[in-house]
Amino acid sequence: MRETIDEILIDGRDLEPPEPMLRVLAALDAAQPGQTVRLLLPREPLPLYPLLAQRGWRHDTVAQADGNYVIHIRRADSGAGN
Predict the structure, then answer these.
(1) Is 13 part of a structural domain of the chain?
(2) Which of 4, 12, 59, 64 is within CB 3.0–4.6 Å of 68 for a Cys-Cys bond?
(3) Gap between the Cα atoms of 82 and 70, Å rounded
(4) What's the CATH number where 64 sits?
């Protein structure tokens, strides 16, 4: 039996737009029940947020001291957040 990883990590800090968004959307399409996505970026992905909501996902965004952002993405029915 194959073990499911609980979190899909996407490090988009060295990627040019729209590549991080495309990778996130692909990860969401492939995500198994209970899986979340953690996205690392050097800017806040404001265009991504409405797309997440339309697809039934929520996010929590945390600005880091170094100027990067960590965005935790999970299914809307799995807990609190935006």
Answers:
(1) yes
(2) 64
(3) 14
(4) 3.30.110.40
**How many residues would you count in the chain?**
82
Output the CA–CA distances (angstroms, integers) from residue 74 to 35, 37, 59, in the order listed: 7, 7, 6
User: Which tens digit of pLDDT belongs to each residue from 36-69?
Assistant: 999 999 999 999 999 999 999 999 999 999 999 9
Full residue range of the structural domain in which residue 28 is found: 7-78
Could you tell me if residue 38 is inside a domain? yes
Tell me if the pTM is above 0.70: yes
Number of domains making up the chain: 1
Q: Which residues contact 1 (CB under 8 A, 6 or more apart)?
A: none
- Phi, then psi, of 74 in degrees rounded to 5: -150, 165
What CA dihedral angle connects 45, 50, 56 and 60, to 10 degrees? Answer: 40
